[in-house]
Write a structure and sequence with these properties.
By secondary structure, the protein is mainly beta. 4% of the residues lie in helices and 46% in strands. The longest helix has 10 residues, at 317-326. Bound molecules: beta-D-mannopyranose. Residues 49, 109-110, 181, 245, 281, 284, 286, 304, 307 line the site of beta-D-mannopyranose.
């Protein structure tokens, strides 16, 4: 019996594969991972940490493609089934949004995409004066993209919009950082009346023990459920070989999303398969998007593996909520 209701449109064609027989983990991997190889485009060194959304019965996305110069670029992509993707060979070239001055394009990495009200918004890690912060843009059709102002001052990463206004304002999670590989990181919440001016900042979560002891950052767009906002996030541990990126989940209060209701003490996904352990940056699983089907309770999570390829995993909302109840910090 399905207990937890997810808000949002039905998605009967959500990419899906049942949990392998004998497996007990709450989140399981697609058997044909990775779904996007590093060299899908002739120019790409790696394609990972990317975001997808349902679009007119199909799927669209914004993909992080590091090119062979090792410049970090964003490319639009399309798919009929969410599994086999065609990516534009040319990177997205943002136009200034109406009423906006042209905003610097520094680079593009770790995009998120969300439908809010009448358009798809894209947030990503952009450069302001050469330093990382949160870029904001929108599109109606994944052909033309309009860039707005950066949301925050440097240094910031992992800007993730909520799929609707909260308390009458747009809402975003982000992770203030530094100019390097940031050996710290907490998730903050901010609101904006107009998607330009951001304030009302609140701390949401700090690192905790084990797999999430060094830093944490928001992952896919928060999923609205009857239990609260379901947030998948990445947590980082520092081992003697460097950072290890895993994924956990938290439930945030629906009206006060800076208040954490529950948070997983064990991870839900951890670098284990070879494609997660070996690549340009070893030992990374980095979720950036989730598709949901409220009717069946299915969730498909897209994640980057080892900063090299794009992968897919699955779970059921009821099982994640049960796990959060049984294994909360
Ligand atoms: C972060 C970002 C991510 C990357 C991760 C591991 O700072 O650059 O894109 O997956 O490091 O290298």
């Amino acid at each position: 019996m399905k207990k937890t209701a997810m808000t949002g449109p039905d998605l009967p064609n959500i990419p899906w594969e049942e949990r392998p027989r004998g497996a007990t983990d709450v989140v399981w991997r697609y058997s044909k991972n990775p779904i996007i190889p590093r060299d899908l485009l002739p120019s790409s060194n790696s394609i990972f940490n990317s975001a997808v959304v349902p679009y007119q019965g199909e799927f669209r996305g914004v993909f992080r493609c590091d090119d062979k110069r090792r410049a970090m670029q964003l490319h639009a992509g399309r798919s009929q089934d969410g599994l086999r993707w065609r990516l534009d060979p040319e990177r997205i070239r943002f136009q200034p949004a109406e009423g906006f001055e042209p905003t610097e394009w520094g680079y593009g990495y770790d995009p998120r995409v969300v439908w809010i009200e009448d358009r798809y918004y894209i947030t990503w890690c952009n450069a302001l004066a050469g330093w990382p912060t949160i870029g904001v843009a929108y599109t109606h059709d994944f052909e033309t993209f309009y860039q707005m102002e950066n949301a925050f001052l440097p240094f910031n990463r992992n800007g993730v919009l909520f799929p609707r206004r909260v308390n009458g304002n747009y809402a975003m999670l982000s992770r203030p950082s530094d100019r390097g590989h940031t050996p710290f990181g907490e998730i903050y919440y901010s609101e904006s009346p107009d998607m330009t001016y951001w304030g009302k900042h609140r701390l949401v979560m700090r690192p905790a023990g084990g797999w999430q002891s060094t830093k944490i950052g928001a992952g896919p767009v928060p999923i609205e459920t009857s239990e609260g906002w379901l947030v998948f996030y990445h947590g980082v541990l520092t081992s003697c070989n460097g950072f290890v990126y895993s994924m956990g989940a938290a439930l945030l209060d629906i009206d006060r999303p800076w208040e954490v209701v529950r948070r997983t003490e064990p991870y839900l996904l951890h670098p284990r398969e070879l494609y997660e352990r070996v690549g340009d940056v070893p030992n990374v699983v980095f979720p950036c998007a989730a598709l949901t089907d409220p009717i069946t309770g299915r969730i498909a999570i897209y994640y980057g593996a080892a900063d090299t390829v794009t992968c897919l995993s699955f779970c059921r909302v009821d099982e994640v909520i049960d796990f959060l109840e049984a294994h909360s910090l």
